[in-house]
Amino acid sequence: MNDPVVRHYSCKDEELPVICGFALSSFKHDQNVFEAYSPRFKKPYDEQFDKRIADLSEMVAPLSETQEVKRINDIIHQQMSDLTEGADRLGGYLDYMKPELILSEAGFGIKGLREGISKKDVEKVLSSLHTVSTNIKKHKAALTAVGLTEDLSSKFAAAEKAISKNKQDAHAISANRTEIVQANLTQFNDLHTQLKEILKAGKILYQKNDPAKYKEYTFSHLRKGVRKVPLTAAQIAAKAKAAEKRRLKAAKTQP
After folding, report:
1. DSSP calls for 190-250
2. What tens digit of pLDDT does each residue of 89-120 get?
3. pLDDT tens sequence across 17-74
4. Looking at the predicted structure, is the pLDDT value of residue 230 above 60?
């Protein structure tokens, strides 16, 4: 049995191609300096690095799957948003039950539900929906007496089931992608090896005479730049699409 391949890089799989893309941009700008330092960096060195980035960008975040996950998440957010009016109505019914029966919106799950919807926190919405459904069953007679309908009552349980299923569908796509990345981890390590080579040379060339340029060849600085503004699903999709175009362009130039 072969030993499992270990990651050689200290960032997320989906971050590595983006970090490499930043490094490639700096490298292309400074390629004449690199070539003067060593012929190793002459073309097609940059083209090979670019193709590796494009291939792994598509592997870690393929456009079709990224779009599908975005579609599912959009549905989930709409399903959560659709619960706002029902949560408000249910909160009104709790007021009507006073003073005979005093139930707080927090204890009933309504406050958490509103907060989850507002923050688009799927886990909090699901947890709150479960609490709401449990409390509706417990106090069904009293709530019905002040106006709760069967349609509204069942809406919360149905939403919990539907949102949970969509969440599982999105997770299944991501989990499948994780398995594919793991199976091709050697290629990610190879990309990281080439990145390290560029960064090491960049540090040698700029450490003494250009501190600002030196930072462009520091892994921690590049990683910080990727994490500074989290990528949205749309941005990841756009990057995957651009990577696919680069891959196709590189394929056409191959003999």
Report:
1. HHHHHHHHHHHHHHHHHTTT-HHHHHTT-HHHHHHHHHHSPPPHHHHHHHHHHHHHHHHHH
2. 999 999 999 888 888 999 999 999 999 999 99
3. 999 999 999 999 999 999 999 999 999 999 999 999 999 988 887 777 888 999 999 9
4. no
Contact 121, 112 (CB under 8 A): no
Give the per-residue pLDDT at 247. Answer: 56
223: Cα separation from own chain's centroid: 16
Would you state the structure tokens that stand for residue 60, as one six-digit string? 């870690």
Give how far the C-alpha of residue 80 lies from the chain's centroid of Cα atoms, to the nearest Å.
19
Phi-psi group of 120: left, alpha or beta (phi > 0 → left; psi -120 to 50 → alpha; rest → beta): left
Q: What angle do CA 119, 124, 126 make, to 5 degrees?
A: 120
Query: For residues 91 and 105, what is the distance between their CA atoms, to the nearest angstrom?
Result: 6
DSSP 102-119: ---HHHHTHHHHHHHHHH
107 contacts 158 by C-beta, under 8 angstroms: no
- Residue 170 has a CB neighbour count (10 Å cut-off) of 19
Contacts of 168 (CB under 8 A, 6+ apart): none
Contacts of the segment 43-50: beta carbons below 8 A, 24+ positions apart: 47/250, 47/253, 48/194, 49/20, 49/24, 49/194, 49/198, 50/24, 50/246, 50/250
Cβ neighbors of 88 (< 8 A, separation 6 or more) are none
